[in-house]
Design a protein that fits this description.
Number of strands: 2
Oligomer: single chain
Radius of gyration: 55 Å
Number of helices: 13
Largest sheet: 2 strands, antiparallel
């Protein structure tokens, strides 16, 4: 028995279709090749749904890895073509005042595909991801950004890079002057405080003030002071040696020079040992 598709291709069937078409009884409603040709928003939505059904059917077919490499590649190409057509119909529906499917419709079919690095816009579905040459695209590492050579980096370096043009903005110099004045003021306050403290501690060293008459008679003024009096007490802040200490130090120094000049080192060593024994 002949199939329905074979019956439709017979000469009688084709003649009958042409006759009904001429009479206006045969309704031929095919999807337009270009989405811009459709002017009815309802029909545009229907064509979009038709494309979505075709995509779903082909995505289900491509999951079968036993179809063969060539069949899988053809199915993957058809799916990508239908995805682009679906996008055109969605844009057309939006232009005609219909629903914005790109914002509201689910992205399940689009998310099933995977783009290869460096191949933007083309997706691989199902068994197409495991085809020879495609698997390596997903496994390869992304390209690393190469370092620029030193000569290329130096092309963009000018005086502004080193800060020579910072003073031209009119903001840096006033701020620096303000900070400089503030720093000077703080240093002056610290100096005044330190001078006040030094003056308080240095009152014990203050000498009595002298007028012009006292300066002329300064010699007689100093001879008139009784250094043995309790009213004039001089404080020595460093140890002052007495006359006997000075004479003893000079004698010891002279002795050491003579010993170093006329006595050998061995004799000096024996003398030092003897002194240690005697406790001198």
């Amino acid at each position: 028995m002949a199939r329905n598709s074979e019956k439709a291709m017979t000469a009688l069937a084709r003649w009958r279709q042409l006759q009904m078409k001429d009479q206006g009884k045969l309704r031929v409603d095919r999807r337009p090749t270009l989405a811009s040709e459709e002017t009815n928003v309802k029909k545009a939505e229907r064509w979009r749904y038709q494309v979505v059904r075709e995509i779903a059917r082909k995505v289900a077919q491509i999951q079968n890895a036993g179809l063969g490499e060539y069949k899988i590649r053809d199915l993957n190409d058809e799916i990508n073509k239908l995805l682009r057509e679906k996008s055109h119909w969605e844009d057309r529906v939006k232009e005609l005042g219909g629903t914005d499917f790109k914002k509201t419709a689910p992205k399940m079919l689009d998310n099933e595909g995977k783009e290869a690095p460096g191949n933007r816009g083309y997706k691989y579905f199902g068994a197409a991801k495991d085809l020879p040459g495609v698997r390596e695209l997903f496994e390869q590492e992304p390209l690393r950004q190469q370092k620029k050579p030193r000569g290329e980096l130096l092309k963009n370096i000018d005086a502004n890079y080193y800060g020579y043009m910072d003073d031209d903005d009119g903001l840096l110099i006033p701020n620096e002057e303000k900070c400089e004045k503030e720093a000077i003021r703080k240093k002056i306050e610290e100096w005044k405080n330190s001078e006040t403290q030094n003056a308080e501690m240095g009152d014990v060293y203050v000498l009595p003030e002298m007028n012009s008459d006292d300066e002329d008679n300064i010699g007689s003024f100093r001879t008139d002071i009784d250094v043995t009096s309790k009213d004039h007490v001089f404080i020595a802040h460093v140890p002052v040696p007495s006359q006997k200490d000075i004479e003893r130090a000079l004698l010891e120094r002279k002795k050491q020079e003579l010993l170093a000049k006329y006595v050998s080192d061995d004799l000096l060593k024996e003398e030092q040992e003897s002194k240690d024994l005697l406790g001198k």
